[in-house]
Amino acid sequence: MSESPLSAPTSIISPAVGRKGGAGGKKGKKKKDPNEPQKPVSAYALFFKDTQAAIKGQNPNATFGEVSKIVASMWDSLGEEQKQVYKRKNEAAKKDYLKALAEYRTGQISQ
User: Fold this and answer.
1) CATH number of 43-110
2) Is the pLDDT of residue 47 over 80?
3) What's the confidence (pLDDT) of residue 18?
């Protein structure tokens, strides 16, 4: 009995190929503390938040994906000095986050 060159022998193929975790059990994800400070959003996310409503107003039937593509092309064509406005907002938010996170962690240690 000859095998065709296109078919692979079944003994080589593992049933766990392409699966996360393989044959082991499911590991539980560590639950997040709802009191932990949230990470700041990126400069692009700040820009997205500012421009999304205007684009949605001009194109009321646009899907989220279409709006995202428009915002992405606007971000790419934005000058570096205009991007700096959002990058500065992001840096300020990041400093506030790190400060709040440090306070949160010292409170956790003392408990």
Assistant:
1) 1.10.30
2) yes
3) 54
